Backbone:
């Protein structure tokens, strides 16, 4: 039995839950929010972060890596292609989400949604909003080019990881541009039960 550790309110845990829905894959899920769970989690992942996936004796962390592993494990080459270039096109957008996009939204999200007291620098928040909107504009241009999904005509892992990010962008209380291709893409994602349950479920 596969076991997933991490609160379902975590954007990175929800990536794995959505993928499990796409794979029709049963996961034993432990929110890891009880006394002593932080130490137990750190014993599995030295960063102390979720999600953590346990598959027999194997332990994996980093949400995009966990998603790649599960898609490959289930031989879902539609979600993560075998052909090198097709796979690279999916992975470049997954990596972009983890590096460029995540780096842009953190100050704005932490200030406007989490209300973290150490993130209330107005200048930093405005710079974060500007960078976040600019990068979402790049995603909009990519979706306008493909006319369908992030990496091309077909739904892939890139749509899962970026679908969660797009939901966070739309739900953060800030000014944002109208991005028609992103809106049309999200409408396509909304036809998927996994997105409705874990990506567009009202949790930023």
Residues:
């Amino acid at each position: 039995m596969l076991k997933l550790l991490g609160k379902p309110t975590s954007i990175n845990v929800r990536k794995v839950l959505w993928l499990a829905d796409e794979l029709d894959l049963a996961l034993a899920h432990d929110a890891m929010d009880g006394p002593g769970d932080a130490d137990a989690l750190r014993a599995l992942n030295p960063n102390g972060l979720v999600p953590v996936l346990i598959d027999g004796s194997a332990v994996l962390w980093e949400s995009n890596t966990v998603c790649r592993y599960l898609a490959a494990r289930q031989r879902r080459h539609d979600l993560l292609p075998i052909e090198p270039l097709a796979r690279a096109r999916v992975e470049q957008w997954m990596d972009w989400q983890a590096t460029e996009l995540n780096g842009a939204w953190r100050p704005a999200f932490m200030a406007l949604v989490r209300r973290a007291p150490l993130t209330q620098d107005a200048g930093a928040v405005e710079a974060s909003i500007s960078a976040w909107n600019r990068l979402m504009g790049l995603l909009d241009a990519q979706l306008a080019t493909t006319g369908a999904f992030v990496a091309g005509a077909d739904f892939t892992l890139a749509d899962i990881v970026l679908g969660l990010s797009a939901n966070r962008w739309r739900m953060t209380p800030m000014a944002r541009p109208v991005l028609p291709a992103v809106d049309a893409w999200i409408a396509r994602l909304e036809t998927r039960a996994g997105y409705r349950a874990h990506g567009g479920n009202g949790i930023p």
